[in-house]
Predict the 3D structure of the following.
Amino acid sequence: MKVIHLSAVMLLAATGAGAQAQSAYPSKPIRIVVPYVAGGAADITARIVGQKMAEGLRVPVIIDNKPGANGMIGTDAVAKAAPDGYTLVLLASGPLVVNPVLYAKVPYDPVKDFSPISLLTSYQYALTVPTASPIKNLAELVATAKAKPGQLSYGSTGVGGGGHLAGVMFGLMSGAEFTHVPYKGAAPALADLLGGTLSFTFDTVVTAAPFVRSGKLRAFAVSGPRRASSLPGVPTMQEVGYKGFDITQFQGLLAPAKTPAAIIERLHDEVTKALKVKEVADRLATEGGYEIVGSTPAAFGEHIRSDLDRYGKLVKDASIKPE
């Protein structure tokens, strides 16, 4: 007579129930937390991609804005959410790979507390000066800064933002001394640049491109390893002599750690399908100035670890302190 232990029966039942629950996924609305204000860059991406994902998943995808603490409030909320595939987070680089190396303490671990799903987009920055500026090229900008240490200023959206990090890297690699002026948004920094109060900025390409095309700003270089599709005539910093210069930031979709692999795979498949839709790619390029990236969950995880190392070194080398 065969004896079946009760514990084995319970384990089989639990496993079967878990498998059935995953196979039925999703059975209710999915929430994508965006740790920034509504109408911002990540919010736009979440709504464009989320809408297309909803079509494939056949459940509503709800965008939930939870701004605050440089993106850490919403990010932490997802880190502590149930790993059931119904609460996700759409992040830009800052909360995931900059804040953990900039601040002495953050309430989540960027590697251990999340299950990456996919990179979505990348974006870079353009170094621009007002058209009225007497500085005509990058070499003149560096020469002027070295002749007048600290007298040339650049604006950004805040300490640790991409524009600030690009300016810091530029100063380290050129040996020139610039004065950083943090703002509470791109608009006031741009206004001061156009008015001549600032010497230059590293602003997102999508923000800078219309002013470059209209002749109000002059672009010297872009911050990524490849030229921006919206400014194809502008060289990269690497092309003009700054080997290894790269401030390219990303947007990506993640779930809480320990989310079942089958659910991550399903979400990854739907994200991949969404990013391949021409309408989605066109809207992301037009409304956000983004380049479509996409990735496997494993590749996204490696990208996170690599950026943590890269930005950690930059923060340490430049002795950057949070505001």
Observations:
- Residues 29-122+249-318 form a domain with the D-Maltodextrin-Binding Protein; domain 2 fold (CATH 3.40.190.150).
